[in-house]
Amino acid sequence: MTTQHTTGHTTGQTTGISGAEIRLEEVVKRYPGQKTAAVESLSLTIPAGEIVMFVGPSGCGKTTSLKMINRLIEPTSGTILIDGEDVRKSSADELRRKIGYVIQGGSLFPHMTVAKNIAIVPKMLGWDASRVKGRVDDLLDLVGLDPSRYRDRYPRELSGGQQQRVGVARGLAADPPVILMDEPFGAVDPITRQRLQDELLSIQRELRKTIVCVTHDIDEAIKLGDRIVILREGGHIAQYDTPEVVLASPADDFVSDFVGSGSTLKQLSLARVNEVDLRETVTARIGEPTADAVQRAEAAGERSVIVLDDRDRPRGWPWLRQLKGDRIVEPTEDLVTVDERSTLNDALDTMLTSSHGAAVVTGDRDRYIGIVTFDTVTDHMRLLEDRAVEERAHEQAAGERA
Ligand SMILES: Nc1ncnc2c1ncn2[C@@H]1O[C@H](COP(=O)(O)OP(=O)(O)OP(=O)(O)O)[C@@H](O)[C@H]1O
């Protein structure tokens, strides 16, 4: 699949970044009849290829700011530049090509199939039928839906999470350098939400778009954001920084109240699965004789095996006693995995739904890379707590000296 943006901008071509820089310069939005502006004067640079999360209390101007970028809302004054070009000078077609848009629930057209929903923008841009078809299948694959099973379904025949995946595919359809997302995962249950977030991180690792995403959820902002913009009323920036800095040194009381106390659990949201040691375990292939897999596992002292498909994707994690009745290894339906870029917090949630006290970890394109265990996470928590105690002692000693 083409991951490089090919419409003329040069940002990051050598580094694999396909996103474009976004600059807001003193952008103001005053709705008719409003006494105070919804956004008073917002200036901000969003680097190419990064995910920037907008958070803040209800009504602070997050959605207004986002929609001004693709001109769904016209700014009252100020300038917005994408890759140095003023969005006001772009035609509607150019904006569609440059900016994908994903909102809660995917907002799919109910009377159109999945394929038609995804193809809307490419068709508007005049792509020929075979290119559109190829693109739809690529995108379904990218968002983890088997094209042959899902392309001809209607939105009502999909779960909420699947609809949201199609919504993401539609946002990516014309390979735009910029994707805007408004509460994209707000309408799904926590486990699906976590999966969709993981998938977004995995897709982003591949595509390196510039993604601007509005959320109510500070944990989602910490997890997904390369940077977080915390807005207060009137679209004023309270802090704009990496999640690490926002958590470790909130700019003021407003930010620390909003972010919540720097508890160990919050710190677990900062640590990624790929930062701790993963454990190897025995794997088996779908279709191989069960006896072989059982023998390998028993020789290694394991009581279960991870079942992989022909593309190394985990498809089950049976106990050996469950396997013994079958002649060949079969997939099971209920395996929940975590992406290597997931937070330890998510891994912990996933483990709580598993009888193994561990979670299966996947990398690019959902390939199996190992397991993360409960003990590893609790060890890491202990390490963080020790560090925090040390830091407090250090600060106290410094205070006493002064
Ligand atoms: N079309 C409109 N006409 C008048 N006022 C509006 C309009 N849209 C939004 N506002 C007001 O502008 C301010 C910012 O709204 P906006 O939707 O951008 O906030 P938000 O931070 O996204 O809020 P939420 O988190 O509740 O979605 C609010 O005071 C809102 O009432």
UniProtKB/TrEMBL annotation:
One of its GO terms (molecular function) is ATP binding. It holds the Pfam family ABC_tran. Keywords: ATP-binding, CBS domain, Nucleotide-binding, Repeat, Transport. InterPro entries: AAA+_ATPase (IPR003593), ABC_transporter-like_ATP-bd (IPR003439), ABC_transporter-like_CS (IPR017871), CBS_dom (IPR000644), CBS_dom_sf (IPR046342), Gly-betaine_transp_ATP-bd (IPR005892), P-loop_NTPase (IPR027417). Residues 22-258 form the ABC transporter domain. Residues 331-389 form the CBS domain. NCBIfam families: proV. Belongs to the ABC transporter superfamily. PANTHER family: OSMOPROTECTANT IMPORT ATP-BINDING PROTEIN OSMV. This is ABC transporter ATP-binding protein. It comes from Nocardioides kribbensis. The lineage of its organism: Bacteria, Bacillati, Actinomycetota, Actinomycetes, Propionibacteriales.
